[in-house]
Design a protein that fits this description.
Layout lengths: L5 H14 L10 H9 L2 H8 L14
């Protein structure tokens, strides 16, 4: 599942880093904090690997 926005891709990258132990979970904020608890490492890899080019910074709730 590709990220829908650059913000989602960045949050997934931060959560993936914490899940792997490269960053303490206490440093996470917002969406990345919930992502690390609710998503698997594979799901986070898929979101984080999405290219940011052409993605909006944020996507509204539609």
């Amino acid at each position: 599942m590709p990220a829908r926005s650059a913000a989602q891709q960045k949050a997934a990258g931060a959560a993936l880093s914490a899940k792997r132990g490269d960053m303490p979970k206490s440093k996470l904020k917002g969406a990345s904090r919930s992502m690390v608890e609710t998503m698997t490492e594979t799901q986070l890899e898929d979101l984080a690997a999405t290219p940011r080019k052409g993605k909006p910074e944020h996507v509204g709730d539609h």
